Amino acid sequence: MNVICPHRLQELLETAVVNFSVLPQYQRDLRNLKLVWDHVRMLEEEQGEWKRKQWQKIDTKHLHQAIQKQKDSVQSLPPEVKNLSGGFTKN
Predict the structure, then answer these.
(1) Contacts of residue 32, Cβ cutoff 8 Å, sequence gap at least 6
(2) What are the angstrom distances between the C-alpha of 27 and each of 16, 20, 22, 68?
(3) 3-state per-residue secondary structure call for 5-67
(4) Is the pTM value of this prediction over 0.90?
(5) Distance of CA 37 to the CA centre of its chain
(6) What was the pLDDT predicted at 88?
(7) What does the CA dihedral 9, 15, 21, 25 come to, rounded to 10 degrees?
(8) What pLDDT does residue 41 have?
(9) Average pLDDT by consecutive 10-residue portion of the chain (91 residues)?
């Protein structure tokens, strides 16, 4: 039995041949991106609350603990998440 290369098959049929074997990796990437962006949203919301407070009313010990929790939260992300670019830009 002759096996035809998918690219050759695409040319012969004049259509795109879908490679479903990459779907599980895409699903993992999407889950990881969602995890990253959920963390980003959570961190931005919390930091936004801090920005709205008057400096005189900020409890620095509480702020330090909250920042430490944020740092721990980011560091606890799975290793494969840390390698994603996710479209992050520095403002």
Answers:
(1) 78, 80, 81, 84
(2) 21, 12, 9, 31
(3) CHHHHHHHHCCCCCCHHHHHHHHHHHHHHHHHHHHHHHHHHHHHHHHHCCHHHCCHHHHHHHH
(4) no
(5) 5
(6) 54
(7) 140
(8) 95
(9) 71 75 86 90 93 86 93 89 64 50
Per-residue model confidence (pLDDT) at position 64: 93
The reported pLDDT for the residue numbered 55 is: 81
Rounded to the nearest 5°, which phi and psi values hold at 8?
-65, -40
Task: Give the dihedral of Cα atoms 19, 25, 31, 35; nearest 10 deg.
Answer: -140
Return the structure tokens found at 79.
Answer: 């290793």
